[in-house]
Amino acid sequence: MTTAAVFNPFVPSYRKNPYLQLGRLREADPVHFSAALQAWILTRYEDCLAVMRDHATFSSDAHNARGQLAEALQQQRRESPVGDVATVLGVDPPRHTEMRAIVNRAFTPRRVQALRPRIEEIARELLATAPVTGDFELMTGLAQPLPVIVIAELLGVPAADRGRFKHWSNAIAATTNLLQTEEMQATTRQAVQEVVDYLGAFIRDRQREPREDLISVLVAADEGGRRLSPEEILAFAILLLVAGNETTTNLIGNGMAALLEHPEALARLREEPDLLPVAVEELLRYDSPVQGLARFTTQAVEMHGRTIAQGDVVLCMIGSANHDPAAFVDPDALVLDRDPNRHLSFGQGIHFCLGAPLARLEADIAFRALLDRWRSLSLAEGGLERGGTLLLRGPERLLLRAS
Ligand code: HEM
């Protein structure tokens, strides 16, 4: 074992391309302890998969964590206006099994597929004002508004409140940045307070008068006598904003950036649009919107000769796992029809992404809409600015040259 590999995600080059550093770590130090993050960084596919599948040892509940990062996470939860309320994402079985069964009802494949015509309409509307030829900023023009409008409509939020929704979801998504400044934390707290007030009133309204929307489904859902409390519904609705918006935005952004860097792939997709569903899987693998997820050990565990103590934080670096040559042939190549393609971009095991069918549908519709709208698409000079955080990756700005 060597500890020669360094991991420094704070340098600008990491934001531009994290895969170089992650690749070195995967080779030389696959179970790396980052003193700066106070966390173990796992970079191999098999290790990440094993961790995600072993929820008994690798808990999703931050209450099981110790140390600096864990304290910060726990404090964040205590101070949240939602209170220390559990969501599916942050609990283990048996609680997880129960909660997941309830929220699964709201996200049935049928319910998601039924959204197709409406999502197509939203995408068309968003692109209607785009120039026929010239520059189009993909992130603000399509990738950001599309998922927010879809979630807002799913929840049943009126169109007039969409703008506020986007602001809230951006601020709340920033909580995934483990390196927030005081000022960022204050903005987040304020946004969470606003969304809590708004959705709290909304849930009370649906309790009195149920409608067709998802909140009404959740209010009524009963699983073996167990229901979600209004606080749990509220926390879940906020989770959807966090988990569903920026991730899907980044899938559209990263995916388009990858296609623009590979014009031959873009041309192929134009020729063979039926390839889109498999191509979306490859775009998810190639540049994953979620780059890592956290677990907390419930007991000491040995991995590759390192001892991870009980209560330690483990970060499974999905982006790195997806580029592991032990799991993928020619992992750094974009192969639109890659088969098999067992990427970890939606996680794995009991916490596998609840919104995966919706995210896939939205991406399919977005790419189709872009290809239909313009005959030719390329990247404007200097048109790609990378954004994101350690755990979420996506463009800040992506300027398309369209004709
Ligand atoms: C490209 C888009 C998306 C990506 C890459 C993504 C990725 C992920 C990942 C990696 C997890 C596992 C987290 C863990 O194991 O700790 C997850 C869970 C989850 N995702 Fe997504 N997600 C996306 C879109 C969505 C959407 C659109 C929604 C809902 C509208 C959503 C809702 C959720 C929820 C509720 C969970 C928690 C499930 C559980 O803990 O049982 N996601 N997602």
Question: What does this protein look like?
Answer:
With 403 residues, the chain is of the alpha+beta class. It has a single domain (30-402), classed as Cytochrome p450 (Orthogonal Bundle). It contains 17 helices and 12 strands. It has helices spanning 12-16, 19-28, 45-53, 67-79, 95-106, 109-113, 116-128, 138-143, 145-155, 162-173, 182-208, 214-220, 230-261, 263-271, 276-286, 318-321, 356-373, and strands at 31-34, 39-42, 58-59, 134-137, 222-223, 226-227, 292-297, 301-303, 306-308, 313-317, 377-386, 395-402. The strands form 4 sheets. It has a 5-stranded mixed β-sheet, with helices on both faces. A hairpin with a 4-residue loop joins β1 (31-34) and β2 (39-42). α13 crosses α15 (276-286), α13 packs parallel to α17 and α15 (276-286) crosses α17. The longest helix is centred in the middle third of the chain and has 32 residues, at 230-261. It is globular. The termini are far apart. The mean pLDDT is 92. Bound molecules: protoporphyrin IX containing FE (HEM). Protoporphyrin IX containing FE binds at residues 60, 88-89, 100, 151, 239-240, 243-244, 247-248, 251, 289-290, 293, 345-347, 351, 353-355, 358-359.
